[in-house]
Amino acid sequence: MTVDTSRPQAPDETTGAVAPSRRRFINSAALAGLGLGVVACSESKPAAPAAGAAASTAPAAAHGGNPGHLKPGELDSYYGLWSGGHTGDVRVLGLPSGREILRIPCFNPDALVGWGHTNESKKIMGTKADGTLRYTVADTHHTHASYKDGNYDGRYAWVNDKINSRIARIRLDYFVCDKITQLPNVQGFHGIFPDKRDPVDAAINYTTRVFCGAEFSIPLPNTGTLDDKKYRSLFSCVDAETMEVRWQAMIDGNCDLVATSYDGKLAATNQYNTEMGAKYEDMMSAERDACVFFHIARIEAAVKAGKFKTFGSSKVPVVDATREANADPKTALSAYVSVPKNPHGVNASPDQKYFICAGKLSPTATVIELAKVLDWFEGKLEKTDAAIVAEVELGLGPLHTGFDGRGNAFTTLFLDSQVVKWNVEKAIAFHKGDKTAKYVVDRIDVQYQPGHLNASQSETVAADGKYLAVGCKFSKDRFLPVGPLHPENEQLIDISGEKMVLMADHPVRGEPHDFIIFKRDLLKPKQVYALDDFPHAVKDPKESGVTRNGKKVLVKMTSQAPAFSLREFTVKKGDEVTLILTNLDKVEDLTHGFAVPGHNINFIVNPQETASVTFTAGEPGVYWCYCTHFCHALHLEMRTRMVVEA
Ligand code: K7E
Ligand code: CUA
Ligand code: CA
Asked: Does the CA dihedral 282-285-286-289 come out positive or negative?
């Protein structure tokens, strides 16, 4: 039940000593469950440590040189894409300032832009037969962007909804969600990662697939009985362009986080429930779980050859990637590499060589060499576990790993409330037997209980080792008290030097989980739409007007500050009104809104954008529809009257 305490403890370069005794205490006592670990950890902390950088001495934040503090008018040098958690959106932060610049609604309605209210957004989100939204809750965890030649190419980002097993795509030219796909036969869709190039066609040096892990196993088919049927997880491949599910792979155990190799050949997911237990005690009964690797080219060849089945009403081909069916390396679709008890994150190092699995219930990181995994698939390596080139102790509760591009990895220690900086090649040397190899470079306290972290450009070939953001799950005393619900604390750390330096705290609404940070010049967002992007655009104010077809009424209108093209329009009580509004203003930043009192309507149209809403005209009367987005000195005067006749 406990972590492997027999493992030799590495001398810690920061203290020169073997890890302190508190670690041993938590080691033996707390790991019956992570929850207990949190309690033990928080109780052992003093209430208000002022500066977190216990292990770091250079107080960059104390003098004027804090690069996180931008002058007014200064732009950030990095974009951060943050998953929004329960709000079902993606948040765009500027870094190093930590300023939130935009929220991109995906899975949940959003009152600012009218997401979930306009017909266009409802179509993307999905509706029931009566036209209402299928879902209005979500739980986003992971956001990742498309690649070209190993770096972000600025086309797309993706985010998952764990509750309803949906994946949303964001166009990074307009920063809007344009497609959502629900994965069939999947519950607890958790990890996602785009591929980085094609496994077969060398000309395709960019993302064409997104891999999705199902954390919860379910009976397949899921018939609604608690019989002794084995629960199963599916690893899904979604087409990056069409957003259709290309195939799924049925595995032993479950999926958690996902990583992909730079050559496109391998994708992998960590598994904490190789036991296939239904209760947490069962899920932590084995000493080792696994990281399962998928041979993408072989899986797609199997699908082409018709070697698949389907489940329920889904037509998506499902290949058999279970252990038993894949014992022969030469034909195997999957390879199971063992990893200590209940691992969590798996991250690809920017040197393209390794996947690093964070131990969670084990105080270790496991380094798996990808070339060796490929060797196993070629029959050149006897055991999958021979691909493990290091398994070293880092501290308590390792969850996720980032990189600086200079050979160092940074891993969050949830229970220790620390980030540990460690050198991957030295860890490999230590594992090989060189006990003088000091792989731990630095440790820094964070506030508190960190989950994800990510460094600038971390999981790309262009990892630049400047900033590290750490998503702390508990903020406790770091912000003004606001009642029982605390914000999360996203901390920014300067990792440009040998020692990590804490730069800033940023409160964020719960609960972001994961994020990526990339150089701002990788994106060239457009700030004005093209009229032709919208098939229903009202291109000329002269096209404005009301047309009736029985009880269905179409209202076409344009906006040009400070007026709507119709000063009034008339409908009848009970009409099904569809209102199309095109913003003909071309000026950057000139957005208009449109609200209809008493009818639950409010949405915006950005420059040259068209949006439409459909609603039922209510009680007879005059309704002042007005512009909700400040656009002009006469913004308050920008109105139109809807007259509802009896
Ligand atoms: Cu570690 Cu959902 Cu990525 Cu949260 S998961 S932390
Ligand atoms: Cu248009 Cu305010
Ligand atoms: Ca387990």
From this structure: positive
Residue 635 has pLDDT above 60, yes or no: yes
Spatial distance between the Cα atoms of 407 and 394, rounded to a whole number of angstroms? 16
Q: Which residue has the higher pLDDT, 59 or 278?
A: 278
Classify strands 408-413 and 99-105 as parallel, antiparallel or unpaired.
Answer: unpaired
Can you tell me whether residue 547 is helix, strand or coil?
Answer: strand
- List the residue whose alpha carbon is closest to atom 4 of ligand 1: 513
Residue 138 CA to ligand 2 center (angstroms) comes to 31
Task: Please list the alpha-helical segments (H only) found in 337-443.
Answer: 370-377, 424-432
Using a 6 Å cutoff on CB, does residue 405 contact ligand 1? no
191 Cβ inside 6 Å of ligand 1:
no
CB burial string 270-295: b at 16+ within 10 A, e below: bbbbbbbbeeeeebbebebbbbbbbb
Q: Report, in angstroms and rounded to the nearest whole number, the Rg of the chain calculated over CA atoms.
A: 27
- CA distances 289 to 391, 440, 528, Å, are 14, 25, 50
CB 190 less than 6 A from any atom of ligand 1: yes
Tokens encoding 337: 């590499």
Dist. CA 142–CA 399, nearest whole Å: 14
Ligand nearest to the CA of 362: 3
- What is the rounded CA–CA span in Å between residue 250 and residue 232? 7
- Give Cα separations from 459 to 350, 377, 548 (angstroms): 6, 25, 55
Atom of ligand 1 nearest to the CA of 513: 4
Residues measured by CB to lie within 5 Å of ligand 3, the ion? 272, 283, 289, 342
Q: How far, in Å, is the centroid of ligand 2 from the Cα of 583?
A: 10
CA of 281 to the centre of ligand 3 (A): 9
Between the alpha carbon of residue 557 and those of residues 536, 544, 547, 581, the distances in Å are 11, 5, 12, 5
Domains of the chain: 81-182 (no CATH), 183-348 (no CATH), 531-644 (2.60.40.420)
Nearest partner of 602 among 612, 593, 610, 611, judged by Cα? 593
- Structure confidence by residue, pLDDT tens digits, 425-443: 999 999 999 999 999 999 9
pLDDT value at residue 223: 84
Tell me: pLDDT of 12 over 90. no
Distance from Cα 300 to the centre of ligand 3, integer Å: 29
Q: 452: Cβ below 6 Å to ligand 1?
A: yes
CA–centroid distance, 318 to ligand 1, in Å, is 27
Distance CA(592)–CA(628), nearest Å, equals: 7
Residues with C-beta less than 6 Å from any ligand 2 atom: 561, 592, 627, 629-632, 635, 638
pLDDT in tens, 441-479: 999 999 999 999 999 999 999 999 999 999 999 999 999
Over pLDDT 70: what percentage of the chain?
Answer: 89
Give the atom of ligand 1 at the shortest distance from the alpha carbon of 400: 1
